[in-house]
Amino acid sequence: MEWAMTELIRHPEIMRKAQEEVRKALNGKRKIEEKDISNLPYLNMIIKETLRARPPGPFLVPRHSLETIKLGGYTVPAGSRVMINAWAIMRDQTCWDEAESFKPERFEGVDMADIRDSFIPFGGGRRICPGINFGMRSMENVLANLLYHFDWKLPGGKKPEEVDVEEAFGLSLIRKNDLVLVATPYKYI
After folding, report:
1. Binding site: which residues?
2. Where does heme bind (predicted)?
3. CA distance to 27, 102, 164, 182, per residue, from 30 (Å)
4. How far apart (Å, rounded) are the C-alpha atoms in residues 174 and 145?
5. For the domain that residue 95 is a member of, what is the CATH number?
6. pLDDT of 189
7. What is the pTM for the complete model shown?
8. 15-59 pLDDT, tens per residue?
9. In a domain, 100, yes or no
10. Is residue 65 domain-resident?
């Protein structure tokens, strides 16, 4: 969530569009229900783009080669541990147009099966994370609530382009420094 809010505060036009979508879809309701989430396609695109640009972990769970194989032109001996760099794959310019840019629209009308080898925040194949649906629904619900109930800004007149996006390397991909925002309750009409 912290990375989603980081990208939204850095891109006010994207946040504005997402808030308009959420507030229009909910039309003054006080509580977001699970059925409301399916009416928020732009929010879903923002979450996918956040997971692409800032995956939960830089590497997938290691694989173990049972036999000697050729992989990407390299010989991988039997018994080798193979690490998959999800961060690099999801920022590969040959797979993603303007890979360094935060563009939720890149997921508009995309069949996820067509990008299953380049969009891997939850892994893939037989070893895909079994919690993918729970994770996505949780993110959609939390982000929808944050955007619906509050308007957001940076403290002290800070500008969006001044937001620090330095990552701390580790098992999970987190911000090196905390994100500090000012939340103002949204006034329902």
Report:
1. 129
2. 129
3. 9, 30, 33, 21
4. 22
5. 1.10.630.10
6. 65
7. 0.91
8. 999 999 999 998 888 888 888 999 999 999 999 999 999 998 888
9. yes
10. no
Residue 69 in domain: no
Q: Tens of pLDDT along 62-119?
A: 888 999 999 889 999 999 999 999 999 999 999 999 999 999 999 999 999 899 889 9
- Residue 58 inside a domain? The answer is no
The total number of structural domains that make up the chain: 1
Q: Which domain range does residue 40 map to?
A: 2-53+85-185
